[in-house]
Design a protein that fits this description.
350 residues, alpha+beta, Immunoglobulin-like, 5-stranded mixed beta sheet, 8 helices, 16% strand, transport, membrane, Cyt_c_oxidase_su2_TM_dom, transmembrane
C-alpha cells in the first residue's frame, strides 16, 4: 500500500510540474502565429462537436432500449402515484431542456466555428435576453419546488385516526430486524445500551416496559394490503437508509434518534407478480441468469418479491442488507402474526 501511495504522489507531482510548465509557456509573449488555430483546426473541432451531439443521443436511445425493462414497475403504495407523477414531470422538463440546449450548443459550435476574416457579433449586454433566461428558470423551478413540497407534505402526513400498524425497522451492519408493536400497537422502549446477547435481546428492548411484552421481533416483514403502516426506524451503529423501492419509500436510519415513514400498500405480492411490467422484468432477469448458469456461474432463477434495502454505503457488506417484504390479505396477515412469539414469551422461556 505504501508503494502504491508513493507512486500516486509521484504521478501527481509530475502532472503538477507539467501543468506549471504549460502555464509558463502561455504566459510568454506570442511569437508570430504559433499556437493560433487555423480554419482546418476550427472545422475539425466543429465537426467533432456535431458528431458528439449525435453520439450522446444515440447513446441515450440505446440506454433506454437496453435497460428500459429494468425500470421499476407500477407503484405498490397509495402515495406512489403522486411520487411517480412528480418524478416524470421533472424528467420531462429535464429532457426537453437538455434536448434543446445541447442541440443548440453543439450545432452553434459547428455552424459558427472560427473562419479567417469572420468576426463574431458582440453584445456588451442585453437586458431583454437576461430577463427571459432568468425568469423562465425561476418560474419553472418555483413550480417544481412548490409541487414537491405539497407532495412531500401529503406523503409525510400521518393521520392517527387511521390507526396505522406500527413496525420498527432496526438497522445494523449488515442486517435488518423488524419489531411489530403487538396487540396494543405501541412499541416498547428500547436503547442500544440494553442490548443483551445472552438473552437474545439484540434490539435493546426494555424488559421492564409493559408495552414491550407483546412486541414481536422477526426477520421477515408481512404487511396487510390497504392498511397504513407506520415504520419507526433506528440504527445501532452507522447511518443506514431504509429503502423500499416498489413502495416509493425511503428514510434514513440515524444512530441516536428515531425517524419514521408511513405508507399504505395497495397491491399484494401475488398481484404484483402478475403485473405485465413485473412479468417482463422477471423474464429478462432470468434470461441473464440462464446465460450465467450456462457459463458455470451460480445464478438461480429469480422470483419477484418486495424487498427492504439499505441505500447508504454503510460498509464492506452493505449489499447484504436486504429483507423480504410480503404484502398479503388481512386474513393471511392475521394468521401469520398469530403464529409469532412475543418478546415477553421469549424472555420468559429462557
Amino acid at each position: 500500500m505504501t508503494t502504491l501511495l508513493v507512486i500516486i504522489v509521484l504521478v501527481l507531482v509530475a502532472i503538477a510540474i507539467w501543468q506549471m510548465t504549460k502555464m509558463f509557456e502561455l504566459s510568454q509573449p506570442a511569437n508570430d502565429t504559433a499556437g493560433i488555430a487555423t480554419d482546418e483546426d476550427n472545422k475539425l473541432n466543429g465537426n467533432l462537436m456535431f458528431a458528439f451531439l449525435v453520439f450522446i443521443y444515440i447513446l441515450t436511445i440505446y440506454s433506454l432500449w437496453k435497460w428500459g425493462p429494468f425500470v421499476l414497475s407500477v407503484p405498490a403504495s397509495e402515495h406512489g402515484q403522486d411520487y411517480d407523477r412528480l418524478m416524470w414531470i421533472s424528467f420531462a422538463l429535464i429532457f426537453i431542456v437538455q434536448f434543446i440546449t445541447q442541440a443548440l450548443l453543439h450545432y452553434f459550435a459547428y455552424k459558427y466555428r472560427g473562419q479567417k476574416g469572420k468576426k463574431a457579433l458582440f453584445y456588451a449586454d442585453n437586458d431583454k435576453l437576461e430577463f427571459i433566461w432568468t425568469v423562465i428558470p425561476v418560474i419553472t423551478l418555483s413550480g417544481l419546488i412548490l409541487y414537491g413540497l405539497y407532495t412531500w407534505n401529503v406523503i409525510m402526513n400521518v393521520d392517527e385516526d387511521e390507526n396505522p400498524l406500527v413496525i420498527e425497522l432496526y438497522a445494523q451492519q449488515f442486517s435488518w430486524t423488524a419489531r411489530y408493536a403487538g396487540d396494543d400497537n405501541v412499541l416498547g422502549d428500547a436503547n442500544v445500551r440494553l442490548i443483551d446477547i445472552d438473552k437474545a435481546n439484540t434490539l435493546g428492548i426494555d424488559e421492564s416496559d409493559p408495552n414491550a411484552q407483546d412486541d414481536i421481533v422477526v426477520q421477515e416483514i408481512h404487511l396487510p394490503v390497504n392498511r397504513k403502516v407506520l415504520f419507526k426506524m433506528r440504527s445501532q451503529d452507522v447511518l443506514h437508509s431504509a429503502y423500499m423501492p416498489h413502495f416509493r419509500a425511503q428514510m434514513n436510519c440515524v444512530p441516536g434518534m428515531i425517524t419514521q415513514f408511513a405508507f399504505t400498500p395497495t397491491m399484494t405480492t401475488k398481484d404484483m407478480r402478475m403485473q405485465p411490467e413485473t412479468v417482463e422484468h422477471v423474464k429478462v432477469t432470468n434470461e441473464i441468469r440462464a446465460e450465467k448458469r450456462a457459463n458455470g456461474e451460480d445464478a438461480d432463477p429469480w422470483e419477484f418479491d418486495y424487498v427492504l434495502l439499505c441505500n447508504k454505503i454503510c460498509g464492506k457488506s452493505h449489499y447484504n442488507m436486504q429483507m423480504k417484504i410480503i404484502v398479503e390479505t388481512e386474513e393471511e396477515y392475521n394468521e401469520w402474526i398469530s403464529q409469532q412469539q412475543t418478546f415477553g414469551d421469549k424472555i420468559a422461556a429462557q
